[in-house]
Amino acid sequence: MDDKNVVRMNQPLKFGGGKLIGGILLAVIAAVIGFQSFTIVEAGHRGVVLQLGAVQPYVLDEGLHFKIPFIQKVIQMEVRVQKSETSQTSASRDLQTVSTTIAVNHHLDANNVNKLYQQVGFEYGSRIVDPAIAESLKAVTAQYTAEELISKRSEVSAKVKEVLSQKLSNYNIILDEINIREFMFSEEYNRAIEAKQVAEQQALKSKLDLERIKIEKEQEITKAQAQAEALRLQKQEVTPELIQLRQIEAQLEAIRRWDGKLPNVTGGTVPFINVGTQ
After folding, report:
1. Of the candidates 185, 219, 243, which is a domain's last residue?
2. Tell me, what's the pLDDT at 197?
3. What is the three-class DSSP state of 93?
4. Domain span holding position 118
5. Coil, strand, or helix at residue 272?
6. Residue 235 φ then ψ, to 5°
7. Which of 76, 67, 24 is nearest to 47 (CA)?
8. Relative to the CA of 206, which of 3, 122, 224, 269 has its CA 20 to 30 Å away?
9. Average pLDDT of each block of 10 consecutive residues along the chain (278 residues)?
């Protein structure tokens, strides 16, 4: 068999192999296109659609969605409640340094995550939330003295929440709740507070002692007045008839106690018996 016949016999084999490879490539391309045509938005997330890099004006909910292969891309943004806890230093109205530890719960507005992604991106925590917390705390604590920050804690918390909510809403972030864990002051202020408490306790003790002395004095005055009034009344009641009555009562008492014996004396008369002749 010559070389020309050999070539003719091998040609069908080469043609058949090319079709197989092409079919495989077409199958792979179709699978890739089919895979790229769908996306799944996970639970607790929303999908931001990018079409050739441009943010689209709609948001994908949870579940399976169709997208244009190689043209559209879906970015998932979490809309669950998130927690940011931070410590901030600010100044009170009486210029005391205050360190505040605060925990903030917030979540993204599910209907506008595309706007947040377009304006801020994924770094909204460090770019928006943390600075807004710091600014809100400084603005509110500057309205109260250090002592009021403690005594009016609930009022301070409510004002911080109001100010912070407004700032976050400008970026489609919804504030859920805040919790001011503690206010911490300088050592000098803590010592001043302790000294003030000691002074207040001493002042209270002195006040109580003064009130006790005042009451005792009033009681003594009242008692003396009562005694004086009693003596005055007794003096007004002393009359000659009363004196004579007291003398007669004394003589009768002496007779009652006399045992019938005369005293052993020479001369004189019995001094307490007035005997008259009939």
Report:
1. 185
2. 60
3. coil
4. 82-185
5. coil
6. -65, -40
7. 76
8. 224
9. 48 59 74 77 95 94 91 94 91 89 95 95 93 94 91 93 95 95 81 64 72 80 75 65 73 72 56 46
- What is the torsional sign of CA 261, 263, 267, 271? negative
Task: Output the CA angle 54-43-174, nearest 5 degrees.
Answer: 70
Residues 121 and 210 in one domain: no
> What pLDDT, on a 0 to 100 scale, did the predictor assign at position 277?
42
Nearest Cα residue to 47 out of 70, 71, 66, 32:
66
The answer to whether residue 118 is domain-embedded is yes
- The tokens for 106 are 């917030």
Domain CATH number, residue 163: 3.30.479.30
Asked whether residue 104 is domain-assigned, the answer is: yes
| Segments in the chain forming alpha helices (H) | 3-36, 113-119, 124, 130-141, 146-151, 153-169, 187-237, 240-257
Question: What pLDDT, on a 0 to 100 scale, did the predictor assign at position 6?
Answer: 46
How large is the C-alpha radius of gyration of the chain?
53
CA distance 83 to 102: 10
Report the alpha-carbon distance of residue 39 to residue 26 in Å, rounded.
22
- Asked whether residue 88 falls in the same domain as residue 153, the answer is yes
Q: Domain tally for the chain?
A: 3
Q: Within a domain: residue 272? A: no
Q: Which two tokens stand for residue 164?
A: 């912070």
Q: Are residues 150 and 166 in the same domain?
A: yes
How far is Cα 202 from Cα 70, in angstroms, rounded to an integer? 80
